[in-house]
Amino acid sequence: MSTVVRFAPSPTGYIHLGNARPALMNWMFALKTGGQFILRFDDTDLERSKKEYADAIEKDLAWLGIKPHRLERQSERKAAHDAARDKLIADGRLYPCYETADELDRRRKRARAMGRPPIYDRAALKLTDEEKAALEAEGRKPHWRFKLEGKEVHFDDVVRGDQVVNTDTMSDPVLIRADGSYLYTLPSVVDDIDMGVTHVIRGEDHVTNTGAQIELFEALGATPPTFGHHNLLTDATGEGFSKRKGSLSITNLREEGYEALAVALIAILTGTSQPVAPHESLDELAQSFDISMVSRSAARFDPAELDGFNARMVHGLSYDDVKDRLAELGVDDAEQLWNAVHENLQKVHDIRDWQKLVSGPVETVVADEDKDFIATAAERLPQEPWDENTWSEWTNDLKAETGRKGKQLFMPLRLALTGQSHGPELKTLLPLLGRTACLDRLS
């Protein structure tokens, strides 16, 4: 049987690095098994769900390298959700409750004060038809709870191994709000059944929910899928990312010039037994990646790590990898400049700074004690044409003429030519500058 996985974001904001982790974990699983990946928007909250966010999520996933085989929207499947609701009501597994939020909160506090777990007491099951009618006459509208069987639910988690969730210690979950709208659980389970989802791979914060969801699959006459719960990606302090805060949104990372593959690899490999190291593509990584490699410990990520890792990825790019992007950036002498400076870039678009340095003008730096040396360097600057050997020929000549060597020889030249104490090897940069520009900066 072919595997089918899904990523089901709510289009209520931009996805961030933490959201990208389950999306990419599922994509890895689909690539590894030759299965299908479904992008399914959990957009039943019509007030908060926005098309602009759904479009942005599609764009962000495509940028990361995820190519969904199917696109689904839960808001278009209400008839299926309603049919499941009616079946559960008919079977006595879905029942109406009339308590207000304040009443429920007082009951929980009372239960805690008496040393009991603050779970729902199923008082609504004891209501007579007359009592229900009286409550509705007061203007109360019911929310609907799923009646759990109160048992040990066992499942084999592809990440965490054998798991047991005791639904006897849980409140019957609310599946339908008082306004008739569905919460996450019912549409998700119904759609997983109808779409043939074989594996549900998601964050470890959903482990406890799995017990109730397995009971719901069974109540609807379906075999539950296989579950896998990976560790959550957090920042260096252990705090989770947030749509509301805009923490490391994929949209922002793309606009800031990070490499898509670098972002994807950080999101996938952090908190696994595999090192965060460059790979040629997600397809190549999928061949060696296994979901069981995910650690049980925290997946902490320091944003500073992304900068360093992104630079490593950029340094490994060839001119052919980036020539179209350089053309979009309007870079002149793109191939020669790329070959000269790419190992000094943190992001591809940083090449524009080096283009400005090459084309000038720059504010050169010449210390008083180096002025005579720089004047000599200008006098002995070789005639063109220049190549990568010109730098060594010139500096060897200056070494013999002035007796300078090492840093005393090279640093004053670098500062005079570029205005910076660091940068690409001057043997590759010198031909790009050309003799006229060099004479101007040495004068």
TrEMBL record:
InterPro entries, A to Z: aa-tRNA-synth_I_cd-bd (IPR045462), aa-tRNA-synth_I_codon-bd_sub2 (IPR020751), aa-tRNA-synth_I_CS (IPR001412), aa_tRNA-synth_I_cd-bd_sf (IPR008925), Glu-tRNA-ligase_bac/mito (IPR004527), Glu/Gln-tRNA-synth (IPR000924), Glu/Gln-tRNA-synth_Ib_cat-dom (IPR020058), GluQ/Sye (IPR049940)
Signal peptide: none
Single GO MF descriptor: tRNA binding
Motif segment ('KMSKS' region): 240-244
Class of this enzyme: ligase
Reaction(s) catalysed (UniProt annotation): tRNA(Glu) + L-glutamate + ATP = L-glutamyl-tRNA(Glu) + AMP + diphosphate
SUPFAM superfamilies in the cross-refs: An anticodon-binding domain of class I aminoacyl-tRNA synthetases (SSF48163), Nucleotidylyl transferase (SSF52374)
Official protein name in the record: Glutamate--tRNA ligase
Gene (UniProt): gltX
